[in-house]
Amino acid sequence: MEDSAAMNAITVASPKTTQELAVEDASASDTTGPHQHGELGGGAAAAGAAGGALGEAQFRYKNAVSSLRAILSSIPTSQTGRPNESGSTATGSLSQAEQLEIEKLEERSSNLKKELANKNTYLKNLIDQLRNLITDISTWQSPCSV
């Protein structure tokens, strides 16, 4: 019953013969889902092409979502297995040499951040001076009206 309604709708929308439409409708129903059976406007061939791409995209989306869920569910398990790699480790579990190395690296990081802030300030000053110089040059090059 649904097939005949779809064929009637397609017959109205397309100038093809009923036999051609029946063949195209059968091939389109192989590639489309059940929710796209009675689309109007583009004919059965257009519905089949769009439905195939849509079906493939839906399939890839569902696979990606299931993979992402599996990865997200495995994250808490893997982090409990490796406490040394996470950011919140107990200091008692690290050796003295590792603690010293971490402190040195944190101090170096702090120094590099300060140096970067100083260089950014210096660079901003240079840019301001360049703007002032460009303004002065454009003022000198402008024609004087006497």
Automatic annotation (TrEMBL):
Residues in coiled coil: none
Signal peptide start and end residues: none
Name of protein: Mediator of RNA polymerase II transcription subunit 30
Region (Disordered): 1-47, 74-97
Organism expressing this protein natively: Cannabis sativa
UniProt-listed InterPro entries: MED30 (IPR034568)
Top-rank taxon: Eukaryota
A GO cellular component annotation in the UniProt record: mediator complex
PANTHER family: MEDIATOR OF RNA POLYMERASE II TRANSCRIPTION SUBUNIT 30 (PTHR36406)
